[in-house]
Amino acid sequence: MARNSERRSDIRTNYKSPARVEDSKGIIYKARIVNYSDDGLYIETDWLLKPGTEIYIEMTKSPYSPSNFDLSERRQSLILWHTKLKGTFYGYGYGVKYIPDLDEIPTQITTLKKAEITEENRKHPRKHLYRSVLLSSKNHYFEGFINNLSKNGMFIETKDNFAVGQVVRIVIPGTKIDNGTMLKSEVKHLGRKGIGVQFKSLLKIKTKSAPEVN
Question: For the chain, which domains are there?
Answer without folding.
Answer: 13-98 (2.40.10.220), 102-204 (2.40.10.220)
